[in-house]
Amino acid sequence: MSTFIGEDISAMFQGLAKCFHHIYASLDIVAIRCALELHIPDVINNHDGPITLSQIARGINSSSLNFDGLSHLMMFLVKRQIFDQVHQPEIEEPLYTLNPCSKWLIQNPKTTIAPYVMMVTNSSLRLLLENLSKCIAEGGTTAMKAFGVDFWSFLSVNPHVNDIFNEGMACGTRITMDALMSKYRFDGLKGTLVDVGGGLGAAINDIVTAYPHIKGINFDLPQVISTAPTYVGVTHVGGDMFKAIPPADSIFMKSVLHDWSDSDCVQILKKCRDSIPGKTGKIIIVDTILHRGGDDVFEYTRIAHDLMMFSLFENGKERTEVEWKKILNEAGFYRYNVIQIPAIESIIEVYSD
């Protein structure tokens, strides 16, 4: 290859292969969505043991099924390690089974990530990323480039997309809360716990249900909490966290601060400080901590989230621990503790003393 004179030709071909791998990576999520729409994970899960392609086809129950197309799809998904393929001596056809990846795609309301898949493959939301280069070259957000309004305004006038987004976010919250509740205990808290930016109240309900001695407040914008369901032990309060936060003994805040600039975060944290006791108050932040160069299994996802936050919000970003310490100190908090949980996010305990 005369184009690469002086280059390691083997390394260049490996680089080409990696380029093609990334170019066609967009098919991964499309194929996963296809499998969900055809209910393939549930068809396999409902079968007693490994299943043939013919049995999967019968489980899909379509009178005009393209069997050859199903074969191509399963070959791709096995190659991408979404499903496993096994062989048994007495059966000529290959057999398919679930693996630890595809088990997350089963329609189990407590563990499925199917709503998250439907969110990231939504055509309107994917259109945002097509404007990433403009966002970098010209400034602004992908939502402004694509729709002429900020992200939240776009959702407010597109209820169908808003529902898909909320279902995807709720799915992520369930997974994070399961991880959090398995590793972190709230029994040391007393009195009132306010969830700042708590959305429809699912997270604070999980906490209060497990620890009924805590009085829960779900705090978010009035238009958000107006549709929140009733939970025993939880009071919904509407307001603006930049103006005032309801008085409480402790504060819980999940996946809120990564939407905002450092200066905005400092302002929010100061409002949190104003609402909790000066000596015994605590803020429990559940958010992403970047480990640049780290090899944690979730680190790629954290970096992807960082790019997504930047594209969606004017100053959104994920932060390293050093960056977290900076905004905490600027808000008047000098003591904190990081707790790792089996999730994309970590817990940052912040003390008011």
Automatic annotation (TrEMBL):
Active-site positions on this chain: H258
The O-methyltransferase dimerisation domain, residue ranges: 21-107
Biological processes per GO annotation: methylation
Entry keywords, A to Z: Methyltransferase, S-adenosyl-L-methionine, Transferase
Coiled-coil regions listed in the entry: none
Signal peptide coordinates: none
GO molecular-function terms, A-Z: O-methyltransferase activity; protein dimerization activity
InterPro entries for this protein: COMT-like, COMT_C, COMT_dimerisation, SAM-dependent_MTases_sf, WH-like_DNA-bd_sf, WH_DNA-bd_sf
Start and end residues of each O-methyltransferase C-terminal domain: 131-333
Keyword Methyltransferase in annotation: yes
Family to which the UniProt record says this protein belongs: Belongs to the class I-like SAM-binding methyltransferase superfamily. Cation-independent O-methyltransferase family. COMT subfamily.
Protein's recorded name: Matairesinol O-methyltransferase
Species this protein is from: Anthriscus sylvestris
The encoding gene: MROMT
